[in-house]
Amino acid sequence: MNKPLHRRAVAVLMGVIMGLAGVVADPGESVADTRVPSPAARSIPISLPEAVATALRQNPDLKAVRLRIGEAEAREIQAGIPGNPELEVKSLGGSGSRKNLELDLIQPFAFSGRLRAAREVAGAELAATRWEIGDTERELARRIAAAFARLLALQEDAALQDELIASAEELLVVMEKALGQAQVSEAHRNSAAIELQRARSKKAKIETQGASLGIEFNRLIGAEDVERRPMGNLEMAVPGDDAYSTAFALEHRPDVRVARERVRQARLERSLAEKERWADVGVGIAYEKSSDLGGTEDTYGFKIAAPLPLVNRARGRIREAALREDRAGLELRALEVRVRGECRDALQRLRAAAAQLDRYRSGILERSRENIEIARAGYLKGLNGMTEILQARQQHLDLKSAWIELLLELRLAAADAAAAHAMEPAP
Question: Does domain 3-420 sit in CATH 3.80.30.20?
Answer without folding.
Answer: no
